[in-house]
Design a protein that fits this description.
The complex is a heterodimer of chains A (about 140) and B (about 400). With about 140 residues, chain A is of the alpha+beta class. Chain A contains five helices and three strands; from the N terminus they run H-E-H-H-E-E-H-H. Chain A has one domain. In chain B, strands 3, 4, 5, 8, 9, 16 and 17 form a seven-stranded mixed beta sheet that branches. Chain B is globular and about 60 Å long. Classes of the chains: A alpha+beta (about 140), B alpha/beta (about 400). Chain B: InterPro entries: ADH-like_C, ADH-like_N, GroES-like_sf, NAD(P)-bd_dom_sf.
């Protein structure tokens, strides 16, 4: 590939990554952007096991700042757990992370930790590092 | 320890990184004995999947020896020789219970990236960018394997490292394409791509009873491997009209099952290929779907197309009209290795599935950057470069 092609490729890759990372960061920061919207996961555990009793630690730690509901998933597919912020004290990102970690604790018994690190910061990967530092807080959940 | 690190677009180097540690109770540490390049790594290397950081360790297809086990590991002991599925799956979520292991809910520590891009997040993968969890890869002396009881498998004594290595990804991926593509006895199956995955898909189709299997590529050395080691028919798309040839070889119907094992950097010919190249370079589309278009168009009415090649985002000029009006079923997936690896190892032990010929270049890890260059350029008839740390 010619130099101009390489430059284009590098710039294009960096731009695409930055756009996605920026969207993720915005989603993480926003709090109750759609007021009253519930964040929901389905846990692959029966309602008798996951739908009653104590909440998993990641959700319990949010305390009164969130309203949590649990109900059986249709078709015997486990238990739906939903959470909604009662106030602006908890961000959507906090709720997403807590729900995802709660699902891992209920299904696996622990939350998968990342490996490494083997990488180093550069100006190009700054948005990506910011996004992955909060990897369970963004997304559409 | 030494590891092959991504340093930037089309830049690789072997460097020193921290030794991996047990971080969760289901982890094992594996001393890597063999680790191999994959065509999908080239998408990372070339910057087509823009979620790499300087220093990331590449590699997702490997085999090694267990040197350390976490307190909750039940199926492995220090000293075991294991082959590891390239996807990291918990084995406990709904998707894992359906044997859709690459869709695991708990195997990706960065679900935000892929959920934003694709609506839902698949599981994590070794050495395959921060979109897939940012897990250090296998082109290293040691690697941490999470959920080891689910994703690592003991290698039977009679299966060599050289053969078992490809159960980790290429053979499992290929088998999945034939299996979930719905290959049945008597079928005519066409496979786009004669690399490692395409060859394994062709062999899987034959073992599942397909009567005629035709593999399409432009590289004669790979097509010769298909004829010699796999036993399938071949087509060189630079010398023939694939659509017409497939029609002729399938009694005018078109192949029952079409398996695409090419991916987002597909080669092609003519103005359509030039169009795709230009749009991809300008980032107006992320992937070049040359082979997918051809597969949908060639497929028989009511047939199926399975996409094994890796795609990241959006494509242009997709033949949706052909798909809909012909009643074609299209499906794709990252590989559900845990579903197939034990069976594949048994078939390898019985000699039904041979893979050693794929390793055209074997070299020390220190030479991995050169190995990737040869692999990328397809120099010296390279099909796969295997590294020995």
């Amino acid at each position: 590939m010619r130099i101009s092609g390489k430059a284009l490729l590098t710039a294009g890759a960096a731009a695409a990554g930055a756009v996605t990372a920026t969207r993720i960061a915005a989603a993480r920061r926003s709090s109750t952007q759609a007021a009253g919207r519930r964040h929901v996961i389905t846990v692959n555990r029966a309602f008798d096991e996951a739908g009653t009793g104590r909440l998993p630690a990641p959700l319990a730690e949010l305390g009164e700042a969130v309203e949590i509901r649990r109900q059986p998933a249709p078709g015997g597919r486990g238990t739906e757990i939903s959470a909604r912020a009662r106030s602006g004290k908890v961000s959507d990102g906090d709720i997403r992370r807590a729900l995802r970690e709660a699902r891992s604790e209920l299904e696996v018994g622990y939350v998968l930790l990342p490996g490494g690190p083997t990488t180093e910061p550069t100006p190009l990967n700054k948005p990506l590092r910011e996004a992955t530092a909060h990897g369970r807080e963004g997304g559409l959940l | 320890m030494k590891a092959l690190q991504w340093q930037g677009v089309n830049k690789l180097a072997v460097g020193d990184v921290p030794d991996p540690q047990l971080r969760n109770p289901g982890d094992i540490i594996v001393k890597v004995r063999r680790t191999v390049t994959c065509g999908s790594d080239l998408h990372l290397l070339g910057g087509y999947i823009p979620f790499m950081e300087k220093g990331d360790v590449l590699g997702h297809e490997f085999l090694g020896e267990v040197v350390e086990v976490g307190p909750e590991v039940r199926r492995h002991r220090v000293g075991d020789r294991v082959v590891v599925s390239s996807f990291i799956s918990c084995g406990k979520c709904w998707f894992c219970e359906q044997e859709l292991y690459s869709l695991c809910d708990n195997g990706n520590t960065n679900p935000a990236i892929t959920e934003t891009l694709w609506g839902q997040a698949p599981g994590g993968c070794f050495g395959y960018s921060h979109a897939m969890g940012g897990n250090p890869g296998s082109h290293a002396e040691y690697i941490r394997v999470p959920f080891a009881d689910v994703g690592a498998f003991p290698v039977p004594g009679e299966v060599s490292d050289e053969r078992a290595l490809f159960a980790s990804d290429a053979a499992a991926t290929g088998w999945m394409g034939a299996d979930l593509g719905g290959v049945k006895p008597g079928d005519v199956v066409a496979v786009w791509g004669a690399g490692g995955v395409g060859q394994m898909a062709a062999r899987a189709a034959m073992l599942l009873g397909a009567e005629r299997v035709i593999v399409i590529d432009r590289l004669d050395n790979r097509l010769q491997q298909v004829e010699k080691y796999i036993g399938a028919e071949t087509l060189n798309f630079e010398r023939t009209d694939v659509a017409l040839e497939l029609r002729e070889r399938s009694g005018g119907r078109g192949p029952d099952v079409c398996i695409e094992a090419v991916g987002m950097e597909a080669a092609g010919k003519g103005p359509q290929y030039a169009y795709d190249q230009l749009k991809q370079q300008l980032r107006l589309q992320s992937d070049r779907p040359v082979a997918v278009r051809e597969a949908v168009h060639a497929c028989r009415k009511g047939g199926s197309v399975f996409v094994l090649g890796v795609y990241a985002g959006f494509v242009d000029k997709f033949p949706l009209g052909a798909l809909m009006n012909k009643g074609v079923t299209m499906r794709g997936a990252q590989m559900h290795g845990q579903r197939y690896i034990p069976m594949l190892l048994d078939r390898m032990a019985r000699g039904e599935l041979v893979t050693e010929h794929l390793a055209t270049h074997v070299m020390p890890l220190a030479e991995a950057p050169e190995g990737y260059r040869i692999f990328k350029e397809k120099e010296d008839n390279c099909v796969r470069a295997v590294f020995v740390p």
